[in-house]
Fold:
Amino acid sequence: MKRYIKILSLAGIMAALLIALAACSGNDAAGDSAAAGGDNTLVVFNYGDYIDIETLDMFTEETGIKVQYEQYVTPEDMYTKYQSGAIPYDVICTSDYIIEKMIQAGQVQEIDRSGMEYYDNLDPVYLDFCKAFDPENKYAVPYFWGTVGICYNTSMVDEEIDSWDILWDEKYAGQLVMENSMRDAFIVPLKLAGKSINTTEEGELLEAQEKLKEQKRLVMAYMVDESRDAMIAGDAAMAVIYSGDATVAMEYNEDLAYVVPKEGSNIWFDCWFIPDSCKHKSNAEKFIDFMNREDIAAMNFDYVYYGTPNKALYDELDEETKEDQTIFPEEEALMRCEVYKYLGEKTEKFYNRLWKELKAY
Structure:
């Protein structure tokens, strides 16, 4: 969904290529080792470019556990690969609503936190948010979090933006970018109408679709990663965007700003969890605990630059970073946000129909 924000240096690109080649050449052997239950193996599945690879090497050096690292693009892509059973993944990082779906399907193992040394580094505030999809914090451990909002160019927009309704303003026709993501696009009309982003009421979803149809003639394009690039280049006046993409864009264009509209939005969480395919549960729990260690969390924060749920790390950040409201919005803004919930197969199908109709409109 929102994970492709790292602009790699040449060294980083070369390192990523070498890791990918090693993974490709070693997949079969590592998969066989995992299936055989080798104690020194751990199969980790994560979004692409969503971890400082050096932390994996450090984990191996400190524990002797060899990591087979696999990557995917979207949560749906992850779930398809998991369902295939081709590789017995031990620990996976993915998004809140997919985790809830898998919990409901009995595809997630409970995490034993009794032996974890660094779990207490996590801020209870974010653990409470995670209860929306993991009610007792039994199955998922937050890794990063963020919001969906509006990134806008202050040299092209001559007014304060604080509401989603700006995205229907005729004077910005052809200068608006919307998320090319079904649920993220529907956030906008649902919140503007005072509805929940987790509504399953078909009438409310139909009204939201009509509002998006009304807006469509004003939209320059529906984008995901490209929205960040469009804002950096000054090709659009504003874009509905993930906070991490906004952070990167603002580093490259000083005219850009970001806001979580007053009506509220989505606060999302990417979490580590242990799937039922896990063959090395103890190793998986050691890995998750390792990710919570302050120095490791700091390395990954510096690499990804999304909001960290690690309070021990947050307390050590410089004041400028702490006060960056794109990364760490004020509590008042967060309280207006909702965590996505899995809406069930019936609503999923209805959403898909509405989205296809909108795109064809």
Confidence is low (pLDDT under 50) at residues 1-37. The chain has two domains: 10-145+269-322, 147-266+329-360.
